[in-house]
Fold this sequence. Notes:
Elements (H helix, E strand, L loop, with lengths): L5 H8 L4 E4 L5 H10 L7 E4 L20 E8 L8 H16 L5 E4 L3 E4 L2 E13 L2 E12 L25 H17 L4 H8 L8 E7 L4 E11 L5 E4 L5 E4 L2 E5 L1
Parallel strand pairs: 1-2
Antiparallel strand pairs: 2-3, 3-7, 4-5, 5-6, 6-7, 8-9, 8-12, 9-10, 10-11
Helix pairs in contact: 3-4, 3-5
Bound molecules: biotin.
Biotin binds next to helix 2, strand 3, strand 6 and strand 7.
Amino acid sequence: xxxxxxxxxxxxxxxxxxxxxxxxxxxxxxxxxxxxxxxxxxxxxxxxxxxxxxxxxxxxxxxxxxxxxxxxxxxxxxxxxxxxxxxxxxxxxxxxxxxxxxxxxxxxxxxxxxxxxxxxxxxxxxxxxxxxxxxxxxxxxxxxxxxxxxxxxxxxxxxxxxxxxxxxxxxxxxxxxxxxxxxxxxxxxxxxxxxxxxxxxxxxxxxxxxxxxxxxxxxxxxxxxxxxxxxxxxxxxxxxxxxxxxxxxxxxxx
Length: 254
Ligand code: BTN
C-alpha cells in the first residue's frame, strides 16, 4: 500500500482544502491557480511525482515517484512579511524533524534544511502579484524521504530521512508539518519568526564560498558567513575586511 493516496489524505485532512496528484507538472503551478481562485490560507497541494518540479534559482527539482514529500502551501501574509515565508517553511520542517527524534537538524542559508551538513529539504517560496497588489505566497517544500542518492552526483551533499530513521510514513510527516506550518504562518510578521529561524542557522561564523546573484550579475565571494539580517540578507566578511551583503545566491562551506 502506498503511504500517500487520495483516500488516506481525504480521511486525515478532513475539512482542510487539499488536492493530491499522482503526477503533476509542479505543485507550485497548481497552487498559483488556486491562489488566484481565492482558495483559503493553508490549502495544500501534494504530489507523488512532478514532471517540471522547480528548485531555487531556476533549477529543476527531480525526485523519483514515491520517494519524497512534495507540497505547496498557500499563505496570505502581510506584504511587509513576505520575506518570512521561506523562513516559515524551513523552520516548520526543522521542527518537524526534531519532533521525529532526528539529530543535527539545521538550516543553511537561505532555506535548505540539513541533517548534519547534508540537504534533506528544499524550500521554494513564490510570491504572486496582480499589478502591485499582493495575491499571496506559495510555499513549495520538497523533503527527501527515501531518495537513493548513493550513485548520484549528490551522494556527498544530500540525504534522505530513510538514512537516519527506519520507517517514514509520508502522511504522518505531512500532518506534523502542516501543524507547524499553520502555527508559524499565523506568526508571519512577528519577530519570533526570524528569532526562531536564526537560532537554527548552522553556517554562521563558518568559512564559505558564495555565489551572489543579482538581476544582472553573478559574483563569487569567499569569506566568513558573519550574520544574516532580519530581512534575510547574508553578510559575508572577506579577508580584505570588507563586508558584502548577499540577497540571493548559494553557499558552499569553504
Ligand atoms: C530548492 O531548490 O532547494 C527548492 C526546492 C523546492 C522543491 C519543491 S517540491 C514541491 C514544490 N513544487 C515545486 O515545483 N518545487 C517545490
